[in-house]
């Protein structure tokens, strides 16, 4: 998880004003944790906007399966 936090910090330090953290399924909790740690410990002056939804993806057998998705936009002001 620290790799994701460092990647986000690097993007902000390179001058990006907005970054997106995206996740599907079981990784949604990890994405939320990354954003919360960023906000609490590193980048306090950030605006957070989250969008949730679902996608239909094929399983290994080719059957369609609905998977939850989240896209969290971080905007530095």
Mean pLDDT: 95
Relative strand content: 35-45%
Strand order in the sheet with the most strands: 1-3-2
Q: Determine and state the CATH class.
A: Alpha Beta
N-to-C order of helices and strands: HEHEE
What structural class results from the helix and strand content? alpha+beta
The rounded distance between the terminal residues' Cα atoms is 25 Å
Radius of gyration, CA atoms, in whole angstroms: 14 Å
Unreliable spans: none
Largest sheet: 3 strands, antiparallel
CATH architecture: 2-Layer Sandwich
SSE blueprint:
Layout: H1 2-13, E1 18-24, H2 28-42, E2 46-58, E3 64-76
Helix pairs in contact: 1-2
Please, could you describe this protein's structure?
This protein is an alpha+beta fold. The protein has one domain (2-76): Translation Initiation Factor IF3, CATH 3.30.110. Helices cover 35% and strands 43% of the residues. It has two helices and three strands; from the N terminus they run αβαββ. Strands 1-3-2 form a three-stranded antiparallel β-sheet. A hairpin with a 5-residue loop joins β2 and β3 (64-76). α1 crosses α2 (28-42). The two termini are 25 Å apart. The mean pLDDT is 95.
Features:
77 residues; alpha+beta; Translation Initiation Factor IF3; 2 helices; elongated
Give a brief outline of the structure.
By secondary structure, the chain is α+β, with helices and mostly antiparallel strands.
